Amino acid sequence: MVNQQRFGLSLVALSCLVLTACDHNDNDEPAPMPPADVSYSYEVTVQNLTQGQPLSPVGVALHGDAVMWETGMPASEALEVLAEGGDNSDFIAVEGVLASATGAAPIGPGSSETVTVTVVNEPDTFISIATMLVNTNDAFAGITGHGLSELEVGQTMMMVLPVLDAGTEANSEAAGTIPGPADGGEGYNAERDDADLVSFHPGVVSADDGLMMSALTSAHRFDNPAVKLTITRTE
What we know:
Layout: H1 2-27, E1 39-48, E2 59-63, H2 77-85, E3 97-102, E4 112-120, E5 126-132, E6 139-147, E7 156-161, E8 163-165, E9 199-200, E10 227-233
Antiparallel strand pairs: 1-4, 1-10, 2-3, 2-5, 5-6, 6-8, 7-10, 8-9
């Protein structure tokens, strides 16, 4: 009789274990899938509106809510390198840049180039773009800290860009100081011999207009704005 009772209790215990295991399996659910990555891609087209000013390869940077220069303030070294010599590598690699792109070559007068830049899972990005007018001492065109969060897929924004003066090199136009094809002179020089403040560029004077020491001609003069910018969100 005792053995039968023990056997019955064992069956009850086993049944409880089986039921418990079954209940446990019924409550198991697969782990939730992480949200899919979202890409934000932008086509950036830069058109040269000048008569005789090639533009350096454009530098494009996506970043947080910040600016990469301010008028009335000194230029960063990265901007100085770009504005004096056309090299955008430091500009698109500064701290805080989330994604970047560079043009493949200089953009001649009347020509344009389109580059694509993509960032992942960053819907509230800002864009900065800069390119040097290479037949100058330190003139550049661009925008900085322009918000893109309201641009939907397929939408386009267009703007024209004024020419700015980095304020890091005097606008002497002297032979040996212009890196573009008009002179083939020096590009970036770490020494700053100008106002050391970013400002709107006063324009080129040229030898044709009385600046006898100038390596430039009237063909290198430019009107503002000098660049047309188109940004289209493609993804």
